[in-house]
Amino acid sequence: MTKTDEKLMRILCILNRVTNIPVATGNFILLLVTVIVLIASATVVAIQPPPVEEFVPIGELPEGDRLPAAPFLVSAYSLVWIFAFGYFWMLSRRLSVVERELNDLAKRAGLDSETESKD
Amino acid sequence: MSEFFRVAWLVMCKDIRVESRSREMLYTTTFFAASCVLVFSFAFVRSGRPVVGAEAGIIWVALAYAGQLALGRAFERELHQDALRGLLLAPVERAAIFVGKLLGIMLLMVVVEAVVVFFVSVLFSTGFFDYGLLFISLLVAGTIGFACVGALFAAMLARSQSRTVLLPVLLYPITVPVLIAGVNGTLALIQSEPNLDLARFWLALIAFFDVVFMTLALWTFEPLMTE
Amino acid sequence: MSLLILAAAMFAAAPIFIAYAPNEATMGLVYKIVYFHVPAWFMMFLSIFVCGIASGIYLFKERVSADRLAYSAAEVAVLFGAIGLTTGPLWARVSWGVWWPWDVRTTLALILEMTFVAYLLLRKYGGPGSEKLSAGLALFGMFNVPFVYVSVNVWRTLHPQTTVVPQLPSAMAGPFWWCVLAYLLLFVVMISGRRRLEEQRAIVERLRLVYDED
């Protein structure tokens, strides 16, 4: 193991003892990146530039020009759920296909080992 | 270091020599760029006058399309009789091979650019050369940026399936900054009140893009071509 | 296991949507879309970062697990990008009367979304060896972000159709960060589920190689 790998392993072990997060480099990188991006986004949100007033804000529009907001809000909300659960459904479908293939292969392995032991 | 440039020079000369025998890529790419200009002219000319600033857009879009075609073709040539593998097996730095191919492609694109700019300036009577140095610098810097990203992707895709359609799909989102900067820099030069500072800003942006992406391309060429 | 985490994510996500509902927004009801829109953008950005870094690791250290993480992150990035790019126009239509406001962040999001859709297309149709190629694309895409931001930013200030950059009033910060947390949970679940799929696929490939040799 190189020196950087050793240091990484040491940090991961300490982290594992403190927080019970499994010792896997993937998780560590994920955690690190998440922390960095969250801090960055927090600062970005905090330092917002002053608004550029070139559109008429909704409060000053005459009543007739305003679009009803509720359908848009509701459709946005439902879109998020549709996308998220559509993805999970797709994932579970693909996972079941792969697991079926795995079982088929395992059965073939079981059969092969039986025929081999008979020889 | 000189070995690096010698190899790049040799690869470029090889490409030029191959091209000079048939001149296929030169003629077809140039003509394709010219037809792009024509097609876009029909889209952007209203009652005999072009839409304001259309010339800048037309030049850069025609260059982007023709450049992408040339890139695909340049690396497709290397597939005949496994020439690409032969190149990669040579005991030289792979980055030098990349630079050599890049120089060849850039030379072709410069020729195509010259024809396109001439064609557009005649069609729309635009004074591109009022600020000749800035304009030429914009073109050259944009060509470098577009070509280095394109050459890397074309080299990567040379041996994969669906390469003809995947190259533009991959290339255009990455080269968006070059296109935006090129079009707007050119626009700043040809508009009724030329804004030289803005043109210089866009030139600086493209130059910075070139430096970053050339470095990235040289850095990643080796691991990407180890197939 | 995955179902359990999924249920936990649902549990976390659902109450917040109820919790902030009574919180009256000052800029109109439709402003509440920001609670779905901005965290989706955060997560897309996070996924792109993860994909880019994992791709770099795969290219230079040749760790296949990094490649699997990159693929998962790219798919999740496209998903969150799609959420952002659909909720954004819905908000823009009501607030500013246009479907597409051409402001920096939406245009940047669109370009990044296209870059990572290209990544997925390359992975699917590129044939053998497309893992390395797509890793290169992801790396380039990640480094492209500041350039696209600057160029689109300067470009749009030249055109008068710019938009109001939303400021987050402090009163709404609570529900907002709760939403971010819920999305983060969603992100983690999606990536780990997707990674598991890739790992299972890799096992099946290996086993198939072994048994098809006989």
Account of the 3D structure:
The complex is a heterotrimer of chains A (119), B (227) and C (214). Chain A is an all-alpha fold and 119 residues long. Chain A is built from three helices and no strands. The two termini of chain A are 45 Å apart. Chain B is built from nine helices and two strands, in the order ααββααααααα. Chain B has helices spanning 2-22, 24-44, 54-76, 83-89, 94-124, 132-157, 163-174, 176-190, 196-224; strands at residues 45-46, 49-50. In chain B, strands 1-2 form a two-stranded antiparallel ribbon. In chain B, strand 1 and strand 2 form a beta hairpin. In chain B, helix 2 (24-44) runs antiparallel to helix 3, helix 2 (24-44) packs across helix 5 and helix 6 crosses helix 7. Chain C is an all-alpha fold and 214 residues long. Chain C has one domain (2-9, 33-161, 168-212). Chain C contains six helices and no strands. The model of chain C is unreliable at 22-26 and 160-165 (pLDDT under 50). Classes of the chains: A mainly alpha (119), B mainly alpha (227), C mainly alpha (214). Chains in contact: A-C, B-C. The B-C interface holds B 149, 152-153, 156-157, 159-162, 166, 169-170, 172-174, 176-177, 180-181, 184, 201-202, 205, 208-209, 212-213, 216, 220, 223-224, 226-227 and C 59-60, 111-112, 114-115, 118, 121-122, 125-130, 132-133, 135-137, 139-141, 143-144, 147-148, 150-152, 154-155, 158.
List its salient traits:
heterotrimer; A: about 120 residues; mainly alpha; 2 domains; 3 helices; flat; C: about 210 residues; 6 helices; globular
Write the layout of secondary structure elements.
The complex is a heterotrimer of chains A (119), B (227) and C (214).
Chain A: H1 3-19, H2 25-46, H3 69-118
Chain B: H1 2-22, H2 24-44, E1 45-46, E2 49-50, H3 54-76, H4 83-89, H5 94-124, H6 132-157, H7 163-174, H8 176-190, H9 196-224
Antiparallel strand pairs in B: 1-2
Chain C: H1 2-19, H2 34-61, H3 64-96, H4 104-125, H5 130-157, H6 173-212
Helix pairs in contact in C: 1-6, 2-3, 2-5, 2-6, 3-4, 3-6, 4-5
